[in-house]
Design a protein that fits this description.
The chain is of the alpha+beta class. It has helices at residues 2-10, 39-46, 105-113; strands at residues 12-23, 26-36, 51-61, 69-83, 88-93, 99-102, 114-120, 132-140, 164-167. The protein is built from three helices and nine strands; from the N terminus they run H-E-E-H-E-E-E-E-H-E-E-E. It has a six-stranded antiparallel beta sheet with strand order 6-5-4-3-8-9, with helices on one face. It has a three-stranded antiparallel beta sheet with strand order 1-2-7. The longest helix is centred in the first third of the chain and has 9 residues, at 2-10.
Length: 169
């Protein structure tokens, strides 16, 4: 089980599933991700360093003999903060301003990894012709960290998933 140990030591985000469902204003993104923080990230969070996460979503149309055309590009941002006085974690969506309090880090990360009902607009002039692909990824926003913790090239504070891709038609 070296992968589990590596995830606990270095931290990792892995998007495990994602799909779109119809909604009145377009689509809603439903996705799940496994989020593991490194010991340094957990220690920083528990010492008062807020962590911001970004969920990136894109829809692209495949084109022959040319680069793929991006039809939709969305970002959803979340902040995770630990309050030592009350000993709870607060997860807040900066996109929708919804928030929740959690007694454990594991519960907060499970909620963060359970992306439910994120609004995705339908592309203008959308039709099902051509090959359409959707991509979702999640990452720690290292630019939102305090300056001494911002990684230059490689660091235990760098955390990002690979793109999870699927076909829309």
């Amino acid at each position: 089980m070296p992968n589990v140990l590596q995830a606990q030591e270095r931290g990792q985000i892995e998007v495990q599933s994602a799909y779109l469902r119809e909604a009145p204003a377009g689509w809603e993104l439903i996705a799940s991700a496994d989020i593991q923080l490194s010991p340094e990230m957990r220690q920083g969070l528990n010492s008062g360093v807020p962590l911001q996460f970004i969920v990136d979503f894109r829809i692209k149309r495949t084109r022959e003999f040319w680069i793929d055309k991006t039809l939709v590009e969305e970002q959803h941002r979340y902040t995770l903060i630990y309050y030592e006085l009350t000993r709870h974690y607060r997860l807040q969506s900066l996109t929708t301003n919804k928030s929740g309090n959690f007694r454990s880090l594991l519960a907060a990360l499970d909620e963060l990894g359970s992306l439910q009902g994120l609004a995705v607009p339908r592309p203008q002039g959308f039709d099902d012709s051509g090959e359409l692909s959707a991509y979702v990824s999640m990452r720690l926003d290292d630019k939102a960290l305090p300056l001494p913790l911002q990684p230059l090239l490689s660091s235990t504070w760098k955390l990002a998933s690979k793109d999870f891709a699927w076909s829309l038609n």
